[in-house]
Amino acid sequence: KGLRLSKGSKVSYIKLLQIFVDQHLEDGNKIKDNMKLGEKVTAKFLIHNLKGSSAQIGATVLSELATELEAMLSDNVSEKEFSIKLNELIIELEILGSQIKKVLLHD
C-alpha cells in the first residue's frame, strides 16, 4: 500500500521509510514520557503526526492504533486504558521498525 501511495516509485518509498525510521521510532516512548509529565497537548501532537506518517507508508495497523489513542485522549479515558493501548502501539512500532530496518539494509 505504501508503495502505491508513492505512485509506484521504489526510490520515493525507500526515502519515506528512512524518514519514518529517523523521525518516528521513538514516538511511543516520547508519548509515554509526555503523558507521565502531564503534557497531553504534546502527546496528542506526537500521536497525530505518527498517525499520518504511518498511514503514508502503508502501516495501517499502526495508523489505526494512533487513531484510537488520539480519540482516547479526547474522550478522557482512564490512564490504565490509555496505557494499555499505548503499549500496543509501542509494540507495533518496534515490530514495524525492525521490519523497515531490514528492508533498508537490503536496499
Q: Main β-sheet, in a few words?
A: none
What share of residues is helical?
over 70%
Number of helices: 6
| Strand-residue proportion | under 5%
Order of helices and strands: HHHHHH
Beta strands, count: 0
What secondary-structure arrangement, pairings included, does this model have?
Elements: H1 2-5, H2 10-24, H3 27-36, H4 40-56, H5 60-75, H6 79-105
Helix pairs in contact: 2-6, 3-4, 3-6, 4-5, 5-6
Can you give a write-up of this model?
- The protein is mostly helical and 107 residues long.
- It is built from 6 helices and no strands.
- The longest helix is centred in the C-terminal third of the chain and has 27 residues, at 79-105.
- The model has no long low-confidence stretch (mean pLDDT 92).
